[in-house]
Amino acid sequence: SFLLCVFLISFLISNAMDNVSTERLAEESHRQDSANLLIFITLLTLTILTIWLFKHRRFRFLHETGLAMIYGVLVGVILRFGVHVPQNMSDVILGCAVNNSPATLLVNVSGRFYEYTLKGEVGRGKGHQVQDDEMLRKVTFDPEVFFNILLPPIIFHAGYSLKRRHFFRNIGSILAYAFVGTVISCFVIGLIMYGFVSFMKAVGQLGGDFFFTDCLFFGAIVSATDPVTVLAIFNELKVDVDLYALLFGESVLNDAVAIVLSSSIVAYQPAGDNSHSFEAMAMLKSFGVFLGVFSGSFALGVATGFMTFTKLRDFPLLETALFFLMSWSTFLLAEACGFTGVVAVLFCGITQAHYTFNNLSPDSQDRTKQLFELLNFLAENFIFSYMGLTLFSFQSHVFNPLFIFGAFLAVFLGRAANIYPLSFLLNLGRKNKIGSKFQHVMMFAGLRGAMTFALSIRDTATYARQMMFSTTLLIVFFTVWICGGGTTPMLFCALHPIYRTFNQKFYVKVTVFFFRVGVDSDQDSPNSAVLDGSQRRDTKHESAWPFRIWYNFDHNYLKPLLTHSGPPLTATLPTCCGPLARCLTSPQAYENEGRLFDDDSDSILNDATVSSMYADVTVSTDASGRTVNRSSGTRGLSDDCVDHDLALAEHEVAIRGTRLVLPVDDPVEPPTTVTLPSPPSPPGSEPRRQRL
Amino acid sequence: SFLLCVFLISFLISNAMDNVSTERLAEESHRQDSANLLIFITLLTLTILTIWLFKHRRFRFLHETGLAMIYGVLVGVILRFGVHVPQNMSDVILGCAVNNSPATLLVNVSGRFYEYTLKGEVGRGKGHQVQDDEMLRKVTFDPEVFFNILLPPIIFHAGYSLKRRHFFRNIGSILAYAFVGTVISCFVIGLIMYGFVSFMKAVGQLGGDFFFTDCLFFGAIVSATDPVTVLAIFNELKVDVDLYALLFGESVLNDAVAIVLSSSIVAYQPAGDNSHSFEAMAMLKSFGVFLGVFSGSFALGVATGFMTFTKLRDFPLLETALFFLMSWSTFLLAEACGFTGVVAVLFCGITQAHYTFNNLSPDSQDRTKQLFELLNFLAENFIFSYMGLTLFSFQSHVFNPLFIFGAFLAVFLGRAANIYPLSFLLNLGRKNKIGSKFQHVMMFAGLRGAMTFALSIRDTATYARQMMFSTTLLIVFFTVWICGGGTTPMLFCALHPIYRTFNQKFYVKVTVFFFRVGVDSDQDSPNSAVLDGSQRRDTKHESAWPFRIWYNFDHNYLKPLLTHSGPPLTATLPTCCGPLARCLTSPQAYENEGRLFDDDSDSILNDATVSSMYADVTVSTDASGRTVNRSSGTRGLSDDCVDHDLALAEHEVAIRGTRLVLPVDDPVEPPTTVTLPSPPSPPGSEPRRQRL
């Protein structure tokens, strides 16, 4: 009952009373709730119309989320200064001598029991006065709405639309940035802020307590960079796939790390009275919480992703509904187990995109993509317009100029301490160096968005948290409006040279994998900038083994087991396991054996086809998302692919004949299928088939 | 009205807990909420899997909603008798001497103010004891959830998927059944129940008050027949389009009438103390409320339907989001204005399907249909499984055998008093008589479903309402399981002869329109069973004028104004209005001028094409919804179509050449496009074009 209710409770008030006047009051309240919700709907509608106008006119200097914010701010100003609805008489103030506020309250009203649920604390700002503006209080959401309603679809969509091939190819660097980088950033920001706070305390500018754990918490929430804002901008441009994958992967995992990190900092509770001193045991416990929650959420997400094993191909509606429910239940299950639902949902999305997606009927594939795309769009714009609104509607803002200045500095330095040293270290191990200009782009692309906001608004009870919230809000506004708006033109200028150096330096290979974060030492061949063909092939052969093992295991065992699209297990398992294999293989797998790759590559992004497709086809999407120009060429083919990818790709082309699936840069767009003109393709595919 | 009272705290628990333990308690509560919601998700998942199994095995004796109910009942039994979670200590019971329960409660907890919102009354059943089972209390939803979250998508979907052509063609009969029929049914049931209740009072079987208004209220809520259950069953069979349209239209509008009727019965408040006596003024006021709310909701729905004038064809995501938001805002706007959101949403759906749908890009057309289909499916199954759950989880059931017997009898007689006399009266005016077997089918198809349940659970405060709720639950169960399950085989037996007589007797024409309910007298030509061609043509010419006027107005002015798909206004408006017309016509309309009908008929169901398509093509969908057999024939063409429909259809075929859109009986399925073999179509279309 919770999730639905959370949303409802903000707006709906039930009337289970036969008393007419009470009924009328409740009706009145319901009406006003509807009107309040209407404000947000109108905001979203306005945003959509303006986005359309901007897209139509190809005006790209302000991002849609920035727009949503502006509208939010406008409405906030109107509500704050224009409308004043006095406190409703229906709000009875009970002065109870309760020591704490329970989640549920049963009130005995002359013999009848009514249940009340805690909505939250109100107006503790100025001298513990209750906020007297009904309107402002009503447009304030329970912060848990963000975590339970709005964030899950956003994060799930991010996971579901991850370009898996490129993600896995850069997994080492991504994990390094996401884990090590976020922790570095968190501590750097925490330390700088602690310095500032100490200074402010000495100067007497601080109006309340601000402990080191608060500083660390601030560091954690501000370290979450937003995949939303960055990628929405990158999508509109033709950005290199690896730059995209690296940034996207980093910012997606970033969020997961930041949310678990912040909750483990909150869990830091030293024994005894002095609750903010350093204690090794509590520290270890926090670390344990971090590991436990993260791995638990990860395992749960992946497990439900595996479990979503659907055979309902004939009924797209049932299939889509089941898919939706399974994803949602992942979230709920994680929350019920005490893990982090958002993180579980992220990994569930990644797993489902990899396995379940292949089982879906083409109709369901479209439906699920479109559904989550829509949910993501609505939730994202809702959060950003609410963000704008809170700037004026939130009653306990604490704007401290010194703190704000410190925070901006710390955020900048923290991001720098994340990107540059890590890139340097990664470059020691990586053959495909991360160029310095690319590092600047990553540095610049570190916007703060929905996750940072949700984490900071979750708890605004203490002075420290209120100051953090106000400052975070400003950081989000700044990064979204200035950086977000500025990224586009900056990229225009910076990207062409970068793209060139990128292509020269980054011999896109599958060198790095899960267990091989670039820092390992057996790899530091110094002059790897330009290698000739044979040399490169050797290193590839030698270095690609972890990926190969994974790929073969995945392709031969996991995919056949979990989807209908792999080769039948009877073909891949040793003959002694024959009966088991027959029992585990679905009949469809046999049917699919012939058109194996065809089946696979119709999905979001097929592992085998992606790199090859990118290699000989440059995809460029128009702003309208319709026209696709492609320029074929064999130049990139040998450069950008490892051998067995090449072989697979060739095989694929041979089988598919005239049909090529072009993965478009946009994760939002479904892959565009281009039918090649039939004359050139058979001669192109024939010799290749002979080579196989 | 009430004002502030003196509040005494008679009972309070004060465990000396600091913030930490409160946080932990809240976390615990959140976890349990997640677990509870997980129960429902699991229920839905189980239902989906079983539905799939049933569909796969072509087992049709139990409908999916019946299944959802069974699972709900099972879980209800487990929760009731298997699990016992004692009352949580976090629920502090405040015994305040408040005169009534306010919607919002501000609790002053040692200097801090916490806001609590009223969730509802709990456990007033047995001796005013508070229900001590935490679990049962937690799985109970706020009844307003149904009206504000679950019903809107169901009702909107019903409106959005109405077969408009057939709906408008039968609008007279539909309105008669929906308005007159529902009112008759309501009063018949009310009177019978009043008889029973009086008898029970005399015998001493009644444990509380039960007034005549309560009886009428019961009549109103039980008169709402469900489009969901009926049509889901009808969909699986090949039912005649007009039978379908009549039943669907009746049951959809039924709901709207019943909800407004019940609220106006509640609004019946005679002046003075004796609040249940008859009073003409109060009666008139109630009638005024009925008219006002209904027409207000209608106007609002149609108005927003008109307003959803989208030009965002290039961006399907934005378009879909906008469409969704506009539909939602209709609901909120109606609720904010004090009208009935559900009714507004219904008419908004109908209007949007008629106008806005034509403006959408093909991609958005699919998206919106699929989105609302999914929402409808989830909401519907959720309601039905919750229904099953409440049978055991609801604490204040009052099962009175006599009342239940009376109710079943009254429902049966009420439906009979609705269908048979009205059909007789309508047959006086209708040329296309409603056959007696068809009347039996309509009688039998009157299932009660989501709306009846939502209306009855909305208020369960008094003894009368509790008894009503329990009885309603049984009626819903019975009709869904027995009638719902039985309709399929019954139809198999009954439909073939019906279908034949229907086809013989019903010369499907556009005789009846809005202002021409069949009862009017200028139409009673007695021997209209079989007429020869010329005679029929004459009567049609004479009788079709109200429809023609509407059609022409709609086609020439409304459609061009509201969509891009009509002929440009410059062509249809008189030349003196030239500048105005130019200003109001979108550039696309000119482009579309040539492929006018093509554009129209790609939508759900185009007015001009439907009847012709049905005439010469018999559509049969497989259970999988994939294979479409069509049998062309010119036989039905002249019988089933009026002249100008025929002309339009021919024109259409001429323009479209090789492509025909076949509207499938299933409102859930998108229209199936069949590409006719190209050789026969050009010779077929050429001579027709010459004829035009």
Automatic annotation (TrEMBL), chains A, B:
Sorted alphabetically, the keyword list is: Antiport, Cell membrane, Endosome, Ion transport, Membrane, Signal, Sodium, Sodium transport, Transmembrane, Transmembrane helix, Transport
The listed locations are:
Cell membrane; Recycling endosome membrane
Query: What biological-process terms (Gene Ontology) are attached?
Result: regulation of intracellular pH; sodium ion import across plasma membrane
Instruction: Give TM regions.
Output: 35-54, 66-83, 145-162, 174-196, 216-234, 287-309, 321-354, 374-394, 401-420, 469-492
Protein topology in the membrane: Multi-pass membrane protein
Region named Disordered: 663-692
* Highest taxon of source: Eukaryota
Q: Where is the composition biased (Low complexity)?
A: 663-676
Q: Which GO terms describe its molecular function?
A: potassium:proton antiporter activity; sodium:proton antiporter activity
- The main place the protein resides is membrane
Where does the signal peptide begin and end?
1-16
* Cellular component, GO, one term: recycling endosome membrane
Query: Which intervals hold domain Cation/H+ exchanger transmembrane?
Result: 47-492
**Family note:** Belongs to the monovalent cation:proton antiporter 1 (CPA1) transporter (TC 2.A.36) family.
Its protein name is Sodium/hydrogen exchanger
